[in-house]
């Protein structure tokens, strides 16, 4: 039996919005440690990893580890029917073929249960090695979202360059080019407005903007985003979800040969 | 000569929005008692009945009963040009072929008149017998609208079950099933937030969600909706319009044979 | 070298939104007097004329007159990437083939530069004679915008009639007809809510609504619009941009033969 109750049901709604455009079908893994998901996007280019720790739920019970295959669009459809202030409880039998989402309004006057059919999904869990990164940038998540969106109107890829003074996002397209520079800024009082750079060595990597735009759908989950980068390694785009977990996206940088091929195509 | 003046012109705008998706062309009936309309929807499945009593208007004159055929989309187009705070006056000659909508801004600085060509529409007035219903539910109209919309993302039909404790809305679809229960709740101070059940005997009926969604377009007209149901009889979905009248929708329940046919098709 | 800095960067964004739907490609002219543009719309029916005076900028330098050909949609794309409170600086070399738009956030923490490729565009400057007009109407720009939009739902052309008491906008269409009258009104305190008519002789002219709707895209630039009209002359629809300049649209009236041809077509 699996049962997990979250007073801040809105978090679950936002989590689904943050991954459903990237991943179509995926297994959610329930274990004593928490509720998690790891999946490649449908074009097998990026990876998303979600962890909601059991201690972050208001009630969490998982007698036996379970892997529940779901179509994320269908989950999102059901969670859209929860009010933003509803309490959400997820429930599943150990050997059942459904998962139930229960929504309670705060005054208990409306109670809904939505039962979703589970599906069998093949998946393999990838081991992601813990790495020390050459550069880490923490910046307002809304700023990162807007930069990715703005640059997408000019070009398809972004070059992210981190130095000790700031982080520069650059693109190139048919109509011209663009550079947006955010300076390191730790002076403001509010942590969520800070741009903080932790640098071992300067790094410059190129990424496809459309994946970063998909990752930025997680913006409502956190006021800050953390970008971790090293030469030739996938960037990690991380959103921490207050007191319960995180969602991390991994995307390999483009290397020059790839870019050339793309331009030929 | 027909002339009717309504200070709260916004009501007329909302009335049109509440019926124009259901009915394409219809006759508005003007009589000494008021301004009314009765029409089947274009697929002849549901019926809408509007009554605006003459005493609810700020000025009302109707020398001779008139039946004025209008395309409701065209009426809605014209009424959209009235400001929300405009005073609206409708005018027609006894044997004319147009109706005029006059809009006055509150400071009288802008005056508009929109003249619509009338059309000949065949229609027969159905007699709707007054019935005692097995169950009546009064609930917040916004809640009803949201439930119908939410369930439509899962299934095509809704089973409405009323007991003395509450009303349950259930659906079934390819991806799973859903139940939403609203408990009877007369404790809250504001009448418009109450859910009140008046029960002679428990009733359970099945309806096509798409019609209920159309009916729910009347939500801005009233904070409450009243559902009246009896076994094998059409449900009445009623929105009372403060101090002037009402709009009532009638929809026959689905019976099992019908459902089977649909599933076969 | 051309360089122009505008603290109220939002004005430039709004200017582009006001002309990009009407004009595809156009030359911006930089001179010691200011930054200007004059262009016919793509169907060669209306003319738009923009003037931003050099003294309205916070910094303005123009060593040599320049004519810079740009695709207005591409300029608009870039300016959309400026925040509403950003300071915008335009820069170009005398013989370069690009223009740079630089955006600075108010706290200087984000600096963006967008470089647009220039294009060669043939254009001829039309001399517009200064004329005394038979009638001038100053009215709230939002009111004018709404009237043009409302009448477009009924007909394709508008007859504007100015008398000493007010201005009347009329249209005719398949479903009926409409008249909207705005009375002269100089009593209200706020100049931007006034409707003021300056009349030498009554005038009545017919225009295509779709051009007026395009002109009304300039509404965010000014609380008032000024319509200047004389018999058989193009109307001037003018939006004054506080302390820096104006945008003027010219549109020839329809004459009866034209209308007939249209109705035949």
TrEMBL record, chains A, B, C:
NCBIfam families referenced in this protein's UniProt entry, alphabetically: pcna
Subcellular location: Nucleus
GO annotation, biological process: leading strand elongation; mismatch repair; regulation of DNA replication; translesion synthesis
Keyword Nucleus recorded: yes
CDD domains named among the record's database cross-references: PCNA (cd00577)
Protein name: DNA sliding clamp PCNA
Listed GO MF terms: DNA binding; DNA polymerase processivity factor activity
Domain (Proliferating cell nuclear antigen PCNA C-terminal): residue spans on this chain: 127-254
Broad class of where this protein is predominantly found: nucleus
Xref: PROSITE patterns: PCNA_1 (PS01251), PCNA_2 (PS00293)
Keywords in alphabetical order: DNA replication, DNA-binding, Nucleus
Keyword Nucleus: yes
GO CC annotations, alphabetized: PCNA complex
Domain of life: Eukaryota
Recorded family membership: Belongs to the PCNA family.
UniProt-listed Pfam families: PCNA_C (PF02747), PCNA_N (PF00705)
Biological role: This protein is an auxiliary protein of DNA polymerase delta and is involved in the control of eukaryotic DNA replication by increasing the polymerase's processivity during elongation of the leading strand.
Domain Proliferating cell nuclear antigen PCNA N-terminal: 1-124
